[in-house]
Amino acid sequence: MQYRQLGNSDLKVSSVCLGTMTYGDQNTQAEAHEQLDYALAQGINFIDTAEMYPVPPKAETFTRTETMIGHWLKNQARDRIVLGSKVAGRNRGLNYIRGGDDSLTRDNIRSAIHDSLKRLQTDYIDLYQLHWPERNVPLFGQYQFDPKLELDAQGTQKSWVSIHTQLETLAELIEEGKVRAIGLSNEQPWGIMEFLRISKEYNLPRVATLQNSYHLMNRTIDFGISEILYRENVSLLAYSPLAFGHLTGKYIDDVTAKGRVTLFRGYAQRYTKPNVAAASAAYAKLARDNGLTPTQLALSFVMHRWSVTSTIIGATSMAQLQENIGAWNTALSPEVLQEIDKLHLAMTNPAP
């Protein structure tokens, strides 16, 4: 395991991060403890969660994941663990969060972290992230910006909480010792650069990380954002490296195989697009032709990209978790990497 700096912060994290979005729905408290203990024993010091987890988000499960982590965290040496969480934002129809007032106002962010700290049973969160942008952007499978969504039913420009206000609130939390570093999630190039510009112009905290989807079937990060990461020293936390299980190969021969795709029908629309099945099959064949499992191929590719600081893995079983963590030690040959690029050029980003 390697340990890497998160942007300009003083946080050093393992190159593999334990994702927890199944805790409280697909995984019990006991299973969560077992996973967390195992990950820690393998050298993973980085844990990712969010106030709205588990996912798919539901009113009856909202906040369960943080609560379950808190039961475990209270018995750990806190300084050994880098804990990341996120505040949910607007435009996702989650009307059970803060009574439906889900914009990233000062009061809402402060209320969110107060409640997260209580559930997590800790005094601070190492990395606090904005789960998705406050403004109108294409998200979670949408791939085109739509200017019409900038207007309300009367044709008036919609308002949203300014980036400056969001950064001022996060600055307060850092000053109060409740947050050590800040990050963005599901963000677009304009937003990343605007956060960086405003933080510099007004001497406000600088974002250290970007948590976006990145895998063999979604390499949109490579088109522009990767240069921002490099030149601005922002660390990429790659989520969904197995593309909702599609890159494990399990849905190729059995579309009813047990997994998130079959458990939560209609969720994650990005994986219903044309070429997803064909690309999944092609990458699985490449893996098996080279003595690898599809999971090893997919995870090793993401884990060893120069642009990725830490890869967020998740699992519902210990066997899955062991294979996922073990993929860090799987090296892909130059020949395999070349074949991956050939497939990528033939079927570019079928699941953006």
From TrEMBL:
NADP-dependent oxidoreductase domain boundaries: 16-343
Domain of life assignment: Bacteria
Protein name: Aldo/keto reductase
UniProt keyword annotations, A-Z: Oxidoreductase
Entry's Gene Ontology molecular function annotations: oxidoreductase activity
Matches recorded under Pfam families: Aldo_ket_red (PF00248)
